[in-house]
TrEMBL record:
Organism name: Rothia aerolata
Domain of life the protein comes from: Bacteria
Protein name: Uncharacterized protein
Amino acid sequence: MNMEKLFRDFEVQIKAERQKEIELDARELQRAEYARIQHLDRLAAQLGQELTVAVEGAQVYTGELQALGSGWIQMRSQTENVLIPQHALVWWEGGSRFSSVDAGSVKRQLTLGYALRALSSARLPVRIFHTSDSLTTEGTIERVGLDFIEVAVHGIEGNFRSKHILGYRMLSVSQIGAVCSAL
């Protein structure tokens, strides 16, 4: 038996084993790094991208992701602006599969409560989709409490006046699936 050939074969085997270990380590490192990415980090990387988003209550919206806040996202479709509480987000698709950024670097500091207060201050007519039973409430957000909103119920088409208000409805913030306003 030729010892030189035996040693060479053995060295090739050792190199191949080391290469396999390096590749396995690299894959494991990649998995470990991916495991540290948070959902909002992936979503934050999609700002400005066209996404399709599903929320509790079976609503699906397609539009450009325009803002990310503390507990909410805001999208713009061809016909409306949509504010979606993070707790109601079921899934999303679109954008880039391989990108992520630190959500803290791009998200607005406004909480969901402050975003709802901004809508209230603007007196925008809104359609609110609830997270259950496909219920909706149409009207204007009058006031925002700690965990609820008060809505003056009226149609959202055309101009409204106090005589058009049908009543006032209290909604639990935890039951809001989406808040939509016309462009």
